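In line with agreed milestones, work has continued on tokenised descriptions of protein folds. One protein thus recorded appears below exactly as we store it:

>
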Amino acid sequence: MKKKIFAFIFAAAASFLIFAGFSACKKDDSETNGIIFNTLIINDASANLSVSNATEEFSFEREITVSGKAKYIVALDQSGVHRVSTDRAPLAPGDNVFYVFETLDDEITNTFMITIRRRPMYAVSFDADGYSEVQTQQIEENSFAAEPAAPSRTGYTFVRWNYDFTQAVTQDTEIQAVWAAKTDTKYKTEYYLQNLENDAYTLRETSNLQGTTDTKATAEIKNFAHFTHKASATDSGNIAPDGSLVLKVYYTRDKYNVTFESNGGTLENGEVNQILKYEGSAVAPVFTRTGYTFIGWDKTIPESVYEDITVTAQWKANRYTLTLIYGNGQPTEIITKDCDSKLEIPNPERAGYDFIGWDKTIPDTMPAENLTVYANWNAIFKLSENGDTITRLTDYGKKKYTEIVISAEIDGVKITSIGSFAFSGCSGLTSVTIPNSVTSIGASAFV
């Protein structure tokens, strides 16, 4: 692209020199070669024009006057590759950029960038919260929307639109209706008392009230002798715009609470908190507890409830085993304890090895299942195939120890020999204690 621009500049300069050389004899002809824009105001080789949305084409032939031998072409790019009709250049909504190339003898003498904005159409919609349908307006850019008639809404008074209609429209716009809630919207509260013979309720009295639309109304809790208010969702509610809200307040006959405590168990079915009328019968729920067996309740559940009562489940812990496997022929240890009993497992010891942990985490208390864990070890020595000769230190042993005491037995095999070069190159060692079981030491074992 830059090369083409430089070429244009060079060609223009060359044309100017030729023009200067012949100016004395052809002065009048040269002055008439060029193009003139009839209405567009050119500033720094560019111009801007705004046209209505209804304008779908632009005629450069009408806009441009050609003098002398000059010609021009119109393109959509600076390279002049994508050319358009000079008579009917199509316009899309928004900015349309054209490049006009003035030419003389097939050489570009001037380039003009012309931006023609076809003003877009914008949708201006009106949201009345769904209570009135207001037609959407299609407004041309920089024109003005018309304020529609006031919408209506039950329980509300229309205040205004949240928009300044003296402002020109420059984008798609949604305009919201502003409403004021009415303060005299009707609603009522009904008071119901529980029947003696069943759990149904009968209307005792009604209060007719007024309030502000779409605000929370809470019923007055009145006192009725020998009845207790039963809180419910219908004690309060939203004041409906159409006045249809009915609050319902319920009162139960005096009752007693029967509470079942799980004592660590989990509810499988039934109700933990039961509210019963006097002489009602409670139904015990079913609890389960992992690792325990249910053995009953701490007190007898009465057939007829006459007071508040709390009954607690009783449990017997199950017994489980923890199996500790030390490996390499060492005895396996089995620990049997009640569920949730405290576990204190010391780290095991093994000659020739360092204990580095169990393959599973041992909990602080006995879990509700049988558990088997395996000890993990780091070997200090490398042994012969039959296990009676120390052949080398392991990499772990070299890094870990500066002083080593060799056990008389490792994994049940008596250590009788130290192989040749067994400790060769172990510069970090300061002492090695050899058991009496060793009867032979190989050549250069400590070199």
Observations:
- Residues 1-30 have pLDDT under 50 and may be disordered.
- The radius of gyration is 50 Å.
- Residues 319 and 337 are 5 Å apart (CA to CA).
- Helices lie at 2-21, 23-30, 60-63, 395-400.
